[in-house]
Each structure stands twice: as C-alpha cells, then as structure tokens.
Write a structure and sequence with these properties.
505 residues, Alpha-Beta Plaits, 20 helices, ACT-like_dom_sf, L-serine ammonia-lyase activity, lyase
Length: 505
C-alpha cells in the first residue's frame, strides 16, 4: 500500500512523458496475441531511467539539492540523473568508467552535469562515487535499489493499467538490478492482482532468475555485456524483496533472440532499440510460443533506445539466426571434381546466403562454411541428414557463439600448433588495451592466433591462441589473472577443433 501511494504521488511528469502504448500489429499477427508495446524508448533521454532518478531527487530538501548529487553509471541512469539535476537546478557529478565511449559521456555533459572518468569497471567507478559522496556531502542517487527510485519506475505500471482497459494476461519487463520490475509489480499487483508480471533476462546475465530460484540474492561471477543496460552482477536488496513476493516468473533469452527483436521493432515501428530495450519483446515472444498463448493481451516494455551505431553490424548478423531465418553450418567436402555440385543438390531448395571455402592441396577433404536462409527445424534436420547419408559430415554451428563471432572468419586456417592454448578475452575499449595485453604475454610466448571483434562500449571480444608449454601454464595463468581482463578457455570447444585444429575429429 505504501508503494501504491508513493507511485500515485510521484512527480515524474515534471520531466517524463506518459509514454504511448501501441499495438504491434505485425508481431501480434505472427504470434496470435494482441502484443502491446509500452514505448519508454520515446522518453526525453530515450530510456525509462529518468523516472526513478527524478522521483528521488524531487524529494530531496533544498539543503540537499544545494550540496548536489552524485551517481555512478555508464549508461541511461547517468542521463536520467543529469536531466533531473538540470530541471531541479542542482549540481550533479556523474562518475563513469574510463572505458565509457565519448558519445555517452559527451551526451551527459551536454545536459549540464560534471563527468568524472574513473576506474576500468563500474564497480571501481561506484566505489569512487560513494567515497566522494561522503567527502563532499552529496546525495548518492542509486540506479535501482531505493524506494523512491522504485516508485518512480512504478509509474509505468500505473500508466499501463490506465491505458489498457479490459483483460490483460501479462506484462513483460526487462530486468537488470530489478528497479523497473519491482516498481511495476508493486503497483499492478495491488490494483490488478490477476495480471502476471514476468521478468526477462539475458541467459548470460540472469542474476534475478538465480536469486529467485535460491531464495536469496546471488552474485554472478561474470555477466554478459551484450545487453549492457541490464548487465548487473547482483540485484538490489529491496528490489529482490519485492520481486520474491510479487513477480510471477522470469524468462531467459539468447543474444540471437534479442537481435531478432531489435529487427522486429525496426520493421514494426522503424525504431532501433538498444539490446536491453528489446529484451521484453524477445521474452514475450518466447513465452507466447512456449505456452501456445492465443488471443490474449500482453504488454512488453521497450525500455531504451540508446544504441551505439557500431553495434548494429553484430545485430544484423545475428538477427536472422535469432528469428530462425538463417542457420550456420559446416560440411566436409571431398577435394574432387563434382563435389560442389553434389553438395548444391543435397542442399536442395534451401537458400544459401553465405558460402566460404578455400582450397588446401594437402587435405583430402575441404571444410566448407555456409549459411542457409528461411528454414524450419524439420527442413534443416532433413538437409543435414541428406548430407550425412551421402557421407558428407555436417555440423550445425547456429547456436555456437564462438563459431559465429570468430571461427567463421578462419575458414581454411586449420593447422597443428604445438602447445597452443586458445582463450577468449574481453578487451576494454580504451587506448592501450592491446599493448597492455601484449606486454603481459609477448615476447614470453608466441601468439599463434588472434581475432578481434569490437562490441561497442562493452569491450572487444578477442580470440587468442598462445603457445605455452605445459610446465609454464601456471605462469601464464598468473599473468592472465593479473591482466584484469575477463577471459575463458575455448580449448575444449569442439567447434574450435573442427574449424582450426584437427579436421579428423
């Protein structure tokens, strides 16, 4: 009841708009439901975050406002705090990691806030912000774990209830730290308890799902950065308390599914969402298909549109995979005349959208990497079975991120490299990141493979091969740990061995 009152008395409309609730006609027709989109991507800072930030800051005393506010954020929360401070006439300091792209911190500066770049990670930036908060007597504005922030986000639930009269099956909400879903659930469950509140998380950033499963907050060791707006290692204390009581479930979606929903939104409304902004759409589609939902009203919140332009290349590559309009495969073909024609006949009516092959005079079989478009699971399975029955070994790479991000670009690059370790590193996007890596490992060990794939502000996804004798592995591991970059071994990934290592496996 306390949250209901707080939501109703919120002052968010001094800065925020009542975002429209629009019917997604194409998606609705495809899914067989009435899918409504709550357009929080149309807010003044292209995200819902300003609601919570302003609601908390508007309740500060004049003395607190005069001392100023501070927050730590590399994204939408920073812009929400900056715009709120501008409207309230107070000084704001925004601490952002040094890895934050210039386009983001410049946009915060244009709103009148002072930007301080500190630390390589969000945790380091937050630690500095809280330290400075105590030193200067500023008020720290958290991104999600505060009752006033939660109540501000809860106004979205209030608007949905007012805008959509009649039956409503479920509201799908993107989940990071939990402020948005906690606020919506606190309001909606009080006035429309029959409406399901369902969170959506990336499968590699599922802190809320794990926390609800275990009955206590769980901290992730690593978190996927593609949907950076929800890349949170641990959910809030108050948000978890509310979600445990009020949320009906969590749907987990893949990176490919998120990309497919970004494309869906562009085709539906000619708008480009950021990955976290498309999360609820991907979750709503997965839920409706899984449960065979028909004829119901469902709402998905498009939470933000602060998309980095350089991320669009990856989105376009993965969107058709996520929508199952394209599959990525590898087939071994005999290096003999007529084998390509035989391969094309076996592909049949499937449309080849990409084909990569390089002749190897020393190999008996050639490895062909290709994509096929517009398929069903049955069609794809039948094609693979045709290949196998003709003794053309074929592997489906569609769900293997390593293959899609890196190995598809190494066609013809198999070789036997002694003592080779293969790791994926996440390089921070800042000058000197590569040299820091090279200083750690070179010339101590030979680098035998290197493929760099930029991912915008979340850092570069880099595949590295290094020749390290077994007796020197402990030294390598120590240097890798001290480097401070996230990394993981891919040595046992079957697709690595298939494409780059041993063609006989």
């Amino acid at each position: 009841m306390e949250y209901l009152t707080s939501v109703l008395s919120s002052k968010v409309y001094d800065v925020a708009i009542e975002s429209p609730l629009q019917l997604a006609t194409k998606l609705s027709e495809r899914l067989g439901v009435n899918l409504w989109i709550k357009r929080e991507d149309l807010q003044p800072v292209f995200s819902f975050k300003l609601r919570g930030a302003y609601n908390m800051m508007a309740k500060l005393s004049r003395e607190q406002l005069e001392r100023g506010v501070i927050c730590s954020s590399a994204g939408n929360h920073a812009q929400g705090v900056a715009l709120s401070a501008q409207r309230l006439g107070c000084d704001a300091v925004i601490v952002m990691p040094v890895t934050t792209p210039e386009i983001k911190w410049r946009s915060v500066e244009r709103l009148g806030a002072t930007v301080v770049l500190k630390g390589d990670s969000y945790d380091e930036a937050q630690s500095y912000a809280k330290q400075r908060c105590e030193q200067e007597g500023r008020t720290f504005i958290p991104p999600f774990d505060h009752p006033d922030v939660i109540s501000g986000q809860g106004t979205i639930g209030m608007e949905i209830v007012r805008q959509l009269q009649g039956p409503l099956h479920a509201i799908f909400v993107p989940v990071g730290g939990g402020g948005l879903i906690a606020g919506i659930a606190a309001y909606v469950k009080r006035v429309r308890p029959e409406v399901k509140i369902i969170g959506v998380e990336p499968s590699d950033a599922n802190a809320m799902a794990l926390s609800l499963c275990h009955g206590q907050r769980v901290m992730l060791e690593q978190v996927g950065g593609f949907a950076d707006g929800v890349a949170v290692k641990v959910v809030g204390e108050e948000t978890f308390r509310l979600c445990r009581e009020l949320v009906d479930g969590i749907v987990l979606v893949s990176r490919d599914a998120i990309c497919a929903s970004i494309k869906d939104m562009f085709e539906e409304k000619r708008s480009i969402l950021e990955p976290a902004g498309a999360l609820a759409l991907a979750g709503a589609e997965a839920y409706c298909k899984y449960y065979g939902l028909k004829g119901e009203n469902v709402v998905a919140i498009t939470s933000g549109a602060n998309m980095n332009f350089d991320r669009l290349r990856l989105v376009t590559e993965l969107a058709d995979v996520g929508r199952k309009r394209e599959a990525v495969l590898a087939t071994f073909l005999p290096e003999e005349q007529g084998s390509f024609k035989k391969f094309a006949e076996l592909v049949g009516r499937m449309n080849i959208t990409e084909f990569k092959y390089r002749y190897d005079c020393n190999a008996k079989d050639a490895l062909v990497l290709y994509s096929v478009g517009i398929y069903t699971d049955d069609e794809l399975k039948a094609m693979v079975e045709r290949m196998e029955s003709s003794k053309l070994r074929t592997v489906d790479l569609t769900d293997n991120d390593l293959a899609k991000d890196h190995l598809r670009y190494f066609i013809g690059g198999r070789s036997e490299v002694t003592d080779e370790l293969v790791y994926r590193f996440i390089f921070p996007e800042r000058p000197g990141a590569l040299m820091k890596f090279l200083d750690a490992f070179s010339p101590r060990w030979n680098i035998s493979l290197f493929h760099y794939r930029a991912q915008g502000e979340t850092g570069a996804n880099v595949l590295v091969g290094i020749q390290v004798p077994p007796e020197e592995f402990d030294e390598f591991k120590s240097r890798a740990d001290n480097l401070g970059y996230e990394y993981m071994s891919e040595l046992n990934n079957e697709i690595y061995r298939l494409l780059l290592r041993d063609p006989k496996i």
